[in-house]
Amino acid sequence: MKKILITGACGQIGTELTIKLAEMYGDENIITTDIQKPPAVIREHSKFEYLNVMDTDQLAKAVVDHDIDTIFHMAAILSATGEKNPKFAYDINMQGLMNVLEVACRKRVKKLVTPSSIAVFGPDAPKQNTPNEIPLNPTTMYGVTKVAGEKLLQYYYLKFGLDTRSLRYPGIISSETAPGGGTTDYAVDFYLHAARGENYTCFVEKDTVLPFMYMADAIKALIDLANADNNRLRRRVYNVSAMALSAEEVVTSIQQYKPDFHCDYNADSRQKIADSWPDSISDKEARDEWDWSPDYDLDKMTREMLERLATK
């Protein structure tokens, strides 16, 4: 990777991805784009341009102007937000990805990396250690677009030779950016409220178990996959995981450091989405084919989250 374009760079993952890539490849080689006003850290570690991925001409111009060889496509509408406006989620997630794929092919970009999600799995998937290769029957528009996106990545790889790579993220927990409308946002909110000395009412039941990952591991996974030897890869999309946690387990972990933190539970419509997803997923293929291994467990994540939030 020499010149990198990041779409949706102001989002939850894009911000920290920008910082890490700039550290590895130099600020001058990172081009960040979004339709939002960027935080100062984005401008500090990259060259920022306003760019709407729905505008193919604008996207192509950015790729040509900056001689881009690698794209990290992070622009998307997430699960809970997508259920409020399914057509909007479909338009952004599907047409946005198609635009990036088309521009990448036409302008000879070498590599396209974009995340998928555990939202691709439906209620018929095994709840424990869900394997990489199973039928995908999602129940949300976000999940539908991610399944279709995975198939598009495979198609463009086989048809046009574009080096496409993706991984299925679990819930991401981060101290640096606010939740972005995902079903797993409650886990981030636990830490935010605890750090402020506030209690919290959770929108899923306490025994709801979902796969999670700390942001540092999420960034590591994406970059490790991007840099993996293509000769070792046997697929375009990989499960990745780090922890399988109930809501109550996260609260208990926080209470070791913030004993006054209290959480009530009042499930809403997002409970149904959470119930359709696996409790845990198998990432054997990622471990075997590109040596994936997370660095954070629950306690290490909790300590770092609370320390970082305290400084903010």
Molecular structure report:
This protein has 312 residues and is α/β, with parallel strands linked by helices. Helix content is 44%, strand content 16%. Strand 6, helix 6 and strand 7 form a beta-alpha-beta unit. Helix 3 runs parallel beside helix 5 and helix 7 packs parallel to helix 9. It is globular and about 55 Å long.
Give a brief outline of the structure.
The protein is 44% helix and 16% strand. It has helices spanning 12-25, 40-45, 56-65, 79-84, 86-106, 141-160, 185-195, 215-227, 247-255, 270-275, 284-290, 298-311; strands at 4-7, 30-34, 47-50, 70-73, 111-113, 116-117, 163-169, 171-173, 200-202, 209-214, 237-239, 243-246, 263-265.
The class by helix and strand makeup works out as: alpha/beta
Shape: globular
Beta-strand content bin: 15-25%
Radius of gyration: 19 Å
Mean pLDDT: 95
CATH superfamily of the largest domain: NAD(P)-binding Rossmann-like Domain
Helix content: 40-55%
CATH architecture of the largest domain: 3-Layer(aba) Sandwich
CATH structural fold name of the largest domain: Rossmann fold
